[in-house]
Every structure is written in C-alpha cells, then in structure tokens.
Write a structure and sequence with these properties.
The chain starts with about 30 loop residues before the first helix and ends in a 7-residue tail after the last helix. The protein has a five-stranded parallel beta sheet with strand order 2-3-4-1-5, sandwiched between helices. The longest helix is centred in the middle third of the chain and has 19 residues. Helix 3 crosses helix 4, helix 5 runs parallel beside helix 6 and helix 11 crosses helix 12. The chain is an alpha/beta fold and about 350 residues long. It folds into two domains: about 180 residues, Rossmann fold; about 70 residues, no CATH class.
C-alpha cells in the first residue's frame, strides 16, 4: 500500500474566489470544499456609501446571509483556542475535547463551521506556505458521522476529506494508518466531527466506532470538537466508552436564546444584529426588535429558525420591508410550527 502525501496546492479548487459551477459541487467534507468555504469572502451587509445592490444581488445576499455571532459562537471560539494551546505539547494521551450540544435548529453546525473557518484563516495567515511549496496548509478537518456508522465507514470519511485513496480490499487498520500518517504530515490541528449523536456505543458497531475515535484522538496531534443534537439525552455518554468520552470532553451548550438573562436580552440583541444586516430599501429600523416576544414564541428562541423566518420574510413579497403581517404569512420548519400555536384573529 502506498501512503499518499498531504494535498498539494494544485489540489485546491482553482480560483477559489470565483463561482465556477464545477467547484460548487465539492462538499465541505472534502478538502476542496472546505478550502473554498474558508477562502471565499462571506456575505457582507451593505456599507454606508456603497452603491445600491440590484434586486438579484440582494436576493442572493439574503439567501446566503451573514453569520450572526451568538453567545455559543463566542464561547466555542474561546474554548477551542484554549484547548488547542493546552494540548499543543501533549504527546502521551488524548487531548481534551469539546462537544457542542443543543436542540435542532439551534446553530450548532453554524457555530462549528464559523470557528473552523476562523482557525483555518488564522493559521494560514501566521504560517503561509513558503515560496514554491507544493503543499497547502491543512489546519482543519471537517467530517460528518454517516448514518448507521461503522468504524470502517467513519474512517473512510476521514480519508475522503483529504482525498486518500481507499480500495475495497483495504482493511480498517490500513485505512486508519493512512489517515493518521497523512493528517499528521498535513499538519491538521483541529478535527471537527458533526452529527455525533448518530453514534450509539451500546451496539457492537457503535462501540467499535467510538473506539476508533478514541484511537484517532490519541494518535493525531489535533484537538477534537464534536457536535450533535442533545447528546446528553443519547447513549453517547453511557457505558465504559461513554464515561471515557465524558471524562475528556467539555460540553458547550448551543441551546435556544433566552428572552432575558439578568439585565440583558440576548434574543432581542440577536434580532437587532439580524435587522442591522438586512439590505431592504423600505424597511424601518427598530421594527423587528419591537416584535421580540412574538418572534421568540414563533421560534422558541432557536437561532436557526429565527434567521430563516427573517430571511424568508425579506424576500417573500417584494415590498422591501418586513412587518408583523409579513412574518405571520411565513411557514417555518415543522419543529418551530409545532412549538408555535398562532392565536386566531391575529
């Protein structure tokens, strides 16, 4: 078996800042897709003095939209930075890890990707490849736990991220060796594993998969960050393997935003940030924060449901403004609609 080298600069998407259709097909769980995500400038709100955007440009902007910096993103960024420093010279045991947990539509993946992008850009700014280098920096890896994951299917996802060839006849051990060698050579420092709630250590395959993650966390010189739906309510922390994970991982709660926290109003503050980022020609500032109680009831405080509601309202009727009447017409995800029971005559 030939162990592949780390990805070269030529393996990154050509013209990462343009919008070639073929490049868009690379998912974030591949190096090409991740590189494009991190090196493409995120959507930005209009700045004073900028020429007005066209209708199509504003529709595209509200479709992609900005990332609202929630308390969970701030907490996760601080924790990741601290643990990466803490584990930098740890050699003999697994480094401390993080688990981002919370209900669906609470912004877990958004927080994970935002922190991953920040880590990637910070590393590449601080450690630019030397002139003439054939290899690009790969500080971050992003992997999804596949449905019904086995140890072999999960390690294959790790291999796919860096384009490590996997033949059908290869054993799990062979793939793992190739992954550990290539990730170490590529300089991966942060491994993000999403959909961790799909693992069930109570089953034979789930236990083997959990063992694989423990093995990788001990062999790779990287900090591991997991994300999943309400992981404390799943079998993830049960049994011996669950106890090992619980003893090494810090939980970062990405729950719904509260209407009030002490003297602050986190949910209203988030609404204000979203409204300030809108690009609507007729919208009156301050309209949405006034409807904070209604919006909290509609979305149960979930940032994912909130941003979807406001973004849909921004593009729904062409009036260039958002009113409570507009918001009433928007149908949200089933989770939010199940929580919200509109009163008649509203």
């Amino acid at each position: 078996m030939v162990t592949p080298s780390p990805p070269s600069a030529s393996s990154t998407p050509a013209g990462a800042g343009d919008s070639g259709g073929a490049e868009l097909s690379w998912p974030l769980t591949t190096w090409q897709g991740w590189h494009r995500f991190t090196t493409t400038a995120p959507p930005a709100p209009p700045r004073p003095g900028d020429p007005p955007r066209s209708t199509e440009e504003r529709l595209a902007y509200h479709s992609s939209f900005v990332t609202i910096r929630t308390p969970a993103i701030h907490t996760l960024a601080t924790q990741v930075r601290t643990l990466m420093i803490l584990g930098r010279h740890q050699q003999t045991t697994a480094r401390p890890s993080l688990i981002v947990t919370g209900p669906a539509a609470a912004g877990k993946t958004t927080a994970l990707l935002n922190v991953g992008r920040t880590c990637h850009l910070a590393h590449t700014r601080k450690n630019p490849p030397p002139p003439g280098s054939a290899h690009a920096a790969v500080p971050v890896a992003y992997v999804l736990v596949p449905p019904g994951a086995t140890a072999k299917t999960l390690i294959t996802e790790f291999a796919r991220y860096l384009g490590i060839p996997v033949a059908t006849r290869m054993t799990q051990t062979q793939i793992t060796e190739a992954v550990c060698h290539t990730y170490t050579q590529a300089g991966v420092q942060l491994v993000m594993i999403d959909e961790i709630h799909r693992l069930n250590p109570r089953t034979t395959t789930g236990a083997q998969t959990a063992d694989l993650l423990k093995d990788l966390s001990e062999r790779l010189p990287a900090t591991f960050v997991y994300a999943g739906i309400n992981v404390t309510d799943t079998p993830l922390f049960t049994g011996v393997r669950g106890a090992q994970l619980a003893g090494r991982a810090t939980l970062v709660d990405c729950g719904p935003l509260s209407a009030r926290h002490g003297k602050r109003e986190p949910f209203r503050e988030c609404i204000t940030d979203i409204e300030n980022a809108l690009d609507l020609q007729q919208h009156k500032p301050g309209t949405l924060p006034r409807h904070a109680p209604y919006l909290h009831q509609r979305t149960a405080g979930r940032i994912g449901s909130l941003t979807r509601l406001i973004r849909q309202a921004a593009i729904s009727d062409g009036t260039e403004r958002i009113t409570k009447t507009t918001l009433d017409t928007i149908r949200l995800d089933h989770l939010a609609e199940t929580h919200h029971r509109p009163r008649r005559g509203r």
